[in-house]
Design brief:
Two copies of one chain form a homodimer.
Chain A (H helix, E strand, L loop, with lengths): L12 H26 L13 H19 L7 H33 L7 H25 L5 H37 L9 H25 L9 H17 L7
Helix pairs in contact in A: 1-2, 1-6, 2-3, 2-5, 2-6, 3-4, 4-5, 5-6
């Protein structure tokens, strides 16, 4: 069944995905330019360790997470689509973990308290829920234990919380940008200095990336139709439940 | 046709809407408590005019806008639903305008430059797009000039950008909270002072309100089925287009 050719992608979808990737690369470049040109670059076990935090979080929780969601709209075979979705989310999780370690170690080295700001509250809540979503996603879809009816119940929740966590990740990044600017250039920010304009532009790029990815994911006509193997599964499920319902006592 | 009883609301919807309203009232109370207890209250043509900005924006662009979106899921007759949707958005627009005037006048009085921060960029972009969405919504759905096919094409875009603008509004509020805290209590914020915890909690309430409203709006089974008058219109439209298509030259 895996050998069946996937249905063609709808017209226009590729153009929107291309725009999203251009925005994604632009926002990574803007992050690099900001940290490299104005914040001294990125380091580890040095005063520059804090800068590893925004770099890792933007790359992991925005770019990689966004692409992991986009994969679901493309017309691959189910197995390849699932594998790529899991791989990108796995990479995002690891890189986000490095980013979180960077900020905690950097705070400890400088004697700065943790978890007092709205950015840290939103960011940590997003990461913990992302971890939970990751484990639930693996539990329901990767391991063979979950029943078809459980998977069917969970799937729309997985999609809703997947998009929600992506939005929350972008929001946390915007809060982090504002926090960093007000810590570092509070005196000159209001004079439209280049660093402020660059970091604000990074914020706008993050919003634009989220907007395009969100549009692609939620456009009704672009939803991926059920694949051959999913249809076969749902037929099996229908047969099973219809077979069970007259007895009705086994559940 | 207006006299026909609306279909019943699905089970569970009312509970979620009740939770959203409790969260909405809680976030308004938290905003009032923050401004009243820690920021000296709200005024006009006084040093307290700046505080009118967060009060108006949270009330208008989060609470009223969120409720204007929720109205669309409820099972009213089409005319009542449309009127309430328009009324709440109209109130939100007016109140947001007052909030924007408050911040510009307050900046002018204190000699603070406008529009340099990421909060101001996101907030102003959100308001301008909200205004555009408002005019487009009126143009397509309120005035009788738009054809049924144009309305059918625009509706999913109106819904997507409606939810997007609601999310952007919440994001802008979170950026505003972070900005205000770092301007006012940057020295004590990291010591977990009550004002910081209260304002962070307001941020969490804003996210929770957005989450519940977003869940209600996007849950597949809770989508409002087409109303009798909408079905009649689409039947008319079908008859019209099927009647027109053989000729085909009139457009």
């Amino acid at each position: 069944m895996d050998g069946a050719p996937p249905p063609p992608s709808p017209a226009g979808l590729s153009a929107y995905v291309a725009v999203s990737q251009a925005l994604g690369l632009a926002l990574l470049a803007a992050t690099g330019a900001w940290l490299g040109r104005y914040r001294g670059g990125v380091g580890w076990h040095s005063p520059l360790q804090l800068n590893a935090h925004p770099l890792c979080m933007v790359l992991a929780m925005v770019f990689l997470q966004g692409d992991a969601l986009l994969v679901c709209v493309f017309r691959h075979e189910a197995k390849r689509s699932k594998a790529l979705h899991g791989l990108l989310h796995g990479l995002a999780l690891l890189m986000a973990l490095v980013g979180i370690i960077a900020v905690f170690e950097s705070h400890r080295a400088k004697g700065i308290p943790d978890m007092y700001s709205l950015h840290s509250w939103c960011g940590m809540a997003t990461f913990v829920l992302y971890l939970l979503q990751w484990f639930l996603g693996c539990g329901f879809f990767l391991f063979p234990g979950a029943s078809f009816s459980l998977r069917g119940w969970y799937k729309p929740h997985h999609i809703f919380f997947g998009i929600t966590l992506f939005i929350l990740s972008i929001t946390s990044c915007l809060l982090g940008i504002t926090e960093m600017l007000l810590f570092k250039i509070s005196d000159s920010y209001s004079h439209f200095v280049p660093e402020g304009i660059l970091a604000n532009t990074l914020g706008v790029l993050l919003v634009a990336f989220g907007l395009v990815v969100g549009y692609v994911l939620t456009r009704e006509e672009w939803r991926r139709p059920p694949l051959a193997e999913e249809l076969a599964l749902s037929m099996d499920f229908k047969t099973l439940t219809e077979g069970e319902s007259p007895g009705g006592g086994s559940q």
